[in-house]
Amino acid sequence: MKRDRMALMGAGALLVVNVTALDAQDGKSMVSAHIEEHGTTYGAIAQDIWDLAEVGYLETESSGLLQRTLGDAGFTVTPGVAGMPTAFVAEYGRGEPVIAILAEFDALPGITQDRSPERAPRPDMGAGHACGHHLFAAGSTAAAIAVKEWLDASGTPGTIRLYGTPAEEGGAGKVYMVREGLFDDVGAVLHWHAGDRNAVWGYSSLANKSAKFRFYGVSAHAAGAPERARSALDGVEAMNLMVNMLREHVPQETRIHYVITAGGNAPNVTRLRRGLLLRPEPGSAERAFHLRAGCGRSGGRGQGHGHRSRIRGHPRHLQPPAQRGDGRGHAGQPGTGRRRGVRR
Which of 2, 117, 145, 170 is the most buried (most CB within 10 A)? Predict the structure, then answer.
């Protein structure tokens, strides 16, 4: 008799598993069918965002397009969350679990491309989607709406929520959304990225911290009175030389990127100021960053002039608001916290 009861329990368990698998398959088929049926619409959204190519925190039209699309599909849309005009949350459903999907939509400055698989820059544009965020935005929106349709059709309890996250390219919009507690009730967050193949990746990302260094010199005629000049560009180059030497002595996970933002316009003019944006992405961000900041101080002193450094407003270790100036600064925005060197 005991054996019979165990057999019945086993059959019951098998039945539950089979029904669950069947429901999951039906749900997958329904979601896939929605994507196929509305593929042209979502493709047009992606191409519109491609043409808009708006950089971080300025994605007004791209964000608005996504919000309208989700609102028309029945989502409750909350714009301007976490003090960012282009951030939003779109929600549909009831109860738990709360499943979140992220959507990025910012472009990269200084790189453009026409709708062509061959290299075809657009001289009329100042930015472009070199990282595929136009697909990211449209794909996440399509997924959220498809799941919403399945929730309606199946009567399944739960909430699907899409987060419009601005300024991924160096602005860390998601950090401010986390600080505001917008993810506190979320059971799982789904994140993906456009690529040339389908794959599941199971690794973490590096920490990221960046700063802008300004070097100040003394202007003079480069040929008539070179001994009176102190070149700010020399300080930048000295710093870069020392930073590149440090590559030999940092953890292997470390990545260091920089750009000279103001190098001058003519070689016979010794200008007063030069700028350098440094973005290390080390395994130990804080320690490695200050090593590079030390190179900046040395570069300025070695050339007989001062320098000033500014920590950009997106440290991804969630720096407490009290340490960020007014506590609300965003990268490239007024109110960003600063850390300065000596100016002479």
Answer: 145
Rounded distance between C-alpha atoms, residue 340 and residue 94, angstroms: 49
Closest to 164 in 3D by CA, of 38, 70, 35, 39: 70
**pLDDT per residue over 165-215, tens digit each?**
999 987 889 999 999 999 999 999 999 988 888 888 777 778 777 788 888
Q: Are 281 and 208 in contact (CB under 8 A)?
A: yes
Q: In degrees rounded to 5, what are phi and psi of residue 11?
A: -65, -40
Count of CA atoms in the C-beta half-sphere (13 A) of 205: 7
**Sequence-distant (≥ 6) Cβ neighbours of residue 74 within 8 angstroms:** 92, 148
Strand positions, DSSP E, the chain: 76-79, 88-94, 98-104, 108-109, 127-128, 158-165, 188-190, 211-216, 220-221, 255-262, 269-270, 273-281, 307-311
State which amino acid sits at residue 210. Answer: S
Tokens 């030497």 sit on residue: 245
CA distances from 37 to 24, 65, 138, 165 (A): 20, 20, 15, 27
Q: Tell me the whole-structure pTM to 2 decimals.
A: 0.69
Distance CA 88, CA 177 (A): 9
